[in-house]
Design goal:
Helix content: 10-25%
Distance between the termini: 38 Å
Strand content: 25-35%
Mean pLDDT: 77
Number of strands: 5
Structural class: alpha/beta
Radius of gyration: 17 Å
Strand order of the largest sheet: 1-2-3-4-5
Largest sheet: 5 strands, mixed
Order of helices and strands: EHEHEHEE
Number of helices: 3
C-alpha cells in the first residue's frame, strides 16, 4: 500500500511503548489520539483517565516517529474559554507536526422533533514551521 502512496492510520486508544513499537515496525504511519476537550473541562467527559495521560501518550507516540492526528469535540457543555484552552493545547504539538480534526455538535428542537447534527472537518497538517509559534 505504501508503494502507492497510501499511508496507514488507526485510532486505537492508549498504547504502551512496546505496543506502539510493534505497530511502527508493522508499517503504521499515523495514530489518531484526540484530546477531546480542554484540560479544565476533561473531568466532565471522562472518568477512566486524565487529560495529562492523553497528552503523555501523544508525546510518547511522537517520540517513536508517528504522525499524530488529534482533535476535539465542541458542544458538550464547555465554555468558550474551554474551547480556546483546548486549541491552545495543540500549540505544544505544532513543532513536531500534527493533523487536527474537530467535531462540532449542534442540537436544536422543533416541536416533537429533536435534531442532532454532527459536523466534522479535517484541517490541513501543520508543518514544523517557526512562523506558527511566533
Amino acid at each position: 500500500m505504501k508503494e502507492h502512496g497510501t499511508h496507514l492510520c488507526c485510532s486505537i486508544g492508549f498504547l504502551t511503548e512496546h505496543q506502539a513499537k510493534m505497530l511502527k515496525e508493522a508499517g503504521l504511519d499515523r495514530i489518531n489520539h484526540n484530546l477531546n476537550s480542554s484540560r479544565s473541562f476533561y473531568h466532565n467527559i471522562c472518568s477512566t483517565h486524565t487529560f495529562d495521560q492523553r497528552v503523555q501518550n501523544i508525546h510518547m507516540l511522537q517520540g517513536l516517529g508517528f504522525e499524530i492526528c488529534s482533535g476535539g469535540i465542541i458542544g458538550m457543555g464547555e465554555s468558550k474559554e474551554d474551547v480556546v484552552d483546548m486549541l491552545l493545547e495543540f500549540s505544544f504539538f505544532v513543532k513536531t507536526g500534527i493533523y487536527l480534526s474537530f467535531i462540532v455538535l449542534y442540537s436544536f428542537s422543533i416541536p416533537a422533533i429533536s435534531v442532532f447534527i454532527v459536523y466534522s472537518r479535517i484541517s490541513f497538517p501543520y508543518a514544523s514551521d517557526d512562523s506558527l509559534t511566533g
